[in-house]
Amino acid sequence: MTPETTVVGSYPIPQWLYGDTSRQTLRDAVAVVLHTQERLGIDVVADGELNRFDPSHPETNGMIDYFVGQFSGVRTQYSITDIDMFRSDEGMSFRTAPAGVVTGAVGDGTLNLRADFELVQDLATKPLKFTCTGPHMLTKTLTDRFYGDREELAMAVANVLRRQLERVSADVIQLDEANITGHPHEARWAVEAMNHVLDGISTRKGVHLCFGNYGGQTIQSGVWRNLVSYLNALRCDFVLLEMARRGQGELELLRGELDPHISIGLGVIDIKDNEVESAESVASRIERAASVMGADRIRFVNPDCGFWMLSRSVADRKMAALVAGRNLYAGAAPGDAGPASAVR
Questions:
Q1: Do the strands 204-209 and 298-303 form a parallel or antiparallel pair, or are they unpaired?
Q2: Residues sharing a CB contact under 8 Å with residue 303, sequence separation 6 or more, in sequence order
Q3: Is the Cα dihedral 315, 316, 321, 322 positive or negative?
Q4: 3-state SS class at 73
Q5: DSSP labels for 168-180?
Q6: Of the candidates 260, 299, 241, the residue with the CA atom closest to the CA atom of residue 3
Q7: What is the layout of strands, in order, in the sheet containing 263-269?
Q8: Which residues, in sequence order, are CB contacts of 13 under 8 Å at separation 6+?
Q9: Distance CA 204, CA 237 (A)
Q10: Are 52 and 17 contacting, i.e. CB atoms less than 8 angstroms apart?
């Protein structure tokens, strides 16, 4: 089976959005992002997560704040004691303050992911992926002054995400987690919350995991082997794993422990480096992974994470390298766009 190419989700913010974030301008920007991916030969495209861009907070791509800032039961203004409480939490030292403080039962608030999807769904001619931050990551960025139990808070967040994603009809829905990789001891409650969300998705569903991409920096330390129980418990169709930055030696460790029914999205593009990979290096990464895990296990090839912190010119050339490398691996001509995608 020839793997399909896809992106993880985010794309560099077009400059004109800094001065005009109206719905029409946003839709125009998404049209450019989708057309760029399709022109370069990406099989399963994404909207660049431009909906979540906040010009007053441009150093992040809205992976956290867009969601929790709209939840009911969460306030986004906090005191010094709130900040001190957050900084005492494990594993969030890369943030100086919480994304919000939970003061009541967490609800949907003004979050409307279906409207976000419907704004752009007719702009793509290829299968369209919709992405959403997972419940573990969102829970970890909140200071809890209501539930008194992190697992209960995680399920409250999962309830919101499930209700939201049940209403989204994208070809692929992907949940993103970037904190659990450094905290495998939280896998039990993290996977329960994640599976609650996944069980509400009726289309093809995946989970992306990486070791962080905050300002282009790796945040979490750990190894994939520590997440095997978490990965094996996920009720999804595929997992997208960061591998290019880490080196593919960890695939040897996963070979005998990862459930053989789990399809893999293989990270073959390093998004924390401006150097653009060659088609040959991408193809060799795919070949090596196929020889270790089996070619049928590799459902997608993709970047390690989102492109939001790169310049557009670098991101576009990396996508071109991704497609060219996949085609080289598959024995296609370098200019061939690859297999027609039919992920439904």
A1: unpaired
A2: 7, 8, 244, 267, 268, 269, 270, 271, 318, 322
A3: positive
A4: strand
A5: ---SEEEEEESSG
A6: 299
A7: 4-5, 298-303, 263-269, 238-241, 204-209, 172-177, 128-133, 45-46
A8: 50, 53, 58, 61, 308
A9: 7
A10: no
Tokens standing for residue 326: 């996949």
Q: Which pairing describes strands 72-75 and 4-5: parallel, antiparallel, or unpaired?
A: unpaired
pLDDT > 90 fraction of the chain, expressed in percent and rounded: 69
From residue 274, alpha-carbon distances to 6, 14, 116, 316 in Å are 19, 18, 30, 11
Asked whether 175 and 268 are in contact (CB, 8 A), the reply is: no
CB-based contacts of 160: which residues, under 8 Å, 6+ apart? 71, 106, 107, 108, 111
* CA nearest neighbour of 99 among 135, 62, 141, 71: 141
Q: What is the pLDDT of residue 96?
A: 64
For residue 266, the cross-strand partners are: 241, 301
For residue 265, give Cα distances in angstroms to 60, 61, 228, 341. 24, 22, 15, 15
Q: Give me the residue label for tokens 């071109």.
A: 320
CA dihedral sign, ordered 183, 92, 308, 61: positive
pLDDT tens figures, 102-161 = 999 999 999 999 999 999 999 999 999 999 999 999 999 899 999 999 999 999 999 999
Q: Residue 336 and residue 171: Cα distance in Å, rounded?
A: 23
pTM: 0.90
What are the two backbone dihedrals, phi and then psi, of residue 10, each rounded to the nearest 5 degrees? -80, 160
Pairing of β 298-303 and β 45-46: unpaired
